[in-house]
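Run log, item B.
One chain of 401 residues. Sequence copied directly from the ordering sheet:
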Amino acid sequence: MADYRIEENRNWKDWHGVLDTVYAGNRQYVYPLRSDIEGILGEKNSAYRGDNLMRWVVKDGKRPVGRIAAFVDTERNQQLELPAGGIGFFESVEDAAVARQLFAVAEDWLRARGMQAVDGPINFGERDKFWGLLVRGWYRPIYQETYNPPYYQSFFEEAGYQPHEQCLTMRGVVSEFPGERLGKLAARVRERYGLYTEQIQANNLRKGADDFAEAYNAAFNHWPYFKPLTGDDIYPTFQQMKPIMDPHLTCIAYNREGRPIGLAGLIPDINCFLQGLKGRLNWVGMPKFLYRLKFQKHPRNCKGIAFGIAKDYQRQGVYPLMVDAMFQSGDRHTSRTYRYVDMATIRGHNKLMVDTCRQMNTDIHRVHLAYRKALVPGASWEPFEMMDVSEVPAGEYGVSQ
């Protein structure tokens, strides 16, 4: 009989070691980069205030068998009527007793800090990565996308968590994008509205970061949970991404006056090159990664990380304008280089974006759910609207595809 013991986690060895336990033998799984996770759950995260984050690990003897992080996004909570904390990076062996211990300690910690509800599993900070529980589409995960065993869903729902927000990953075959139709639409948009596009250049990341932030704020300032960004917020990320950045996968749209009014950003899906490295880009893993990045031809896919259009321009063809610019760039470099494009963390309640993606010959490939649970009596809310995804293939957990 297992002798489970829960403890506050202060060392990364046990935290990352849980993955070795849960995903042993799983041919689909790609470990997230340890540097990404440690950056989110530590001082490098701008949402960290010193006392608004805690981690726990459950051990069976010396073996780590479960983990969870709890956090309070202080700035975002200032915008909410219902104070809500978050839990994330949950992992557990297939034993509900482990999950119950993890949920209980995290919920108690959040309740003691005045939180009336808890969302999870979510990211600590930005909403464009590690958001939601995978409930349909068990395939190899893309970069910074949550992947988990199917039994996690019963753990959450049996603990009282209710579906709150739906996140979709939409996939398309790059070579099947409607290039001719897009080109005609883009030409009309340029002529009628005077809109134009530019790509983010590696030798001028400062301008790219400033324009990206302006376009982002114009596009999302009317959405719930909006948190404005500045060029200073974006620039360090651009610098980190520079080694893998493909300028043909980036685009910013401008109006006649030269103000940024739309953004489209994709990156190569580096999970194609991370298999077997266990999340380590150290002196052993980095040469393997760089070799694959340069010479490995297949698979080579790309991931959408940011798409947005200022509200006043959403009916003027900005999206096809940007997609056409990326599709035509470099003598159609994108369609010659990448097989699939994955558009991640598209909210199920954002029907305009879902419909627009479908016009680009993409469709729902994976589905994540973010849950919410009341921590105090009387806490109430309205969940976001969700799409019917019953026809989306479930995939097969752990099987290489």
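Observations after the first pass:
- Residues 4-167+368-374 form a domain with the Aminopeptidase fold (CATH 3.40.630.30).
- Residues 39 and 45 are 6 Å apart (CA to CA).
Flagged for discussion on Thursday.
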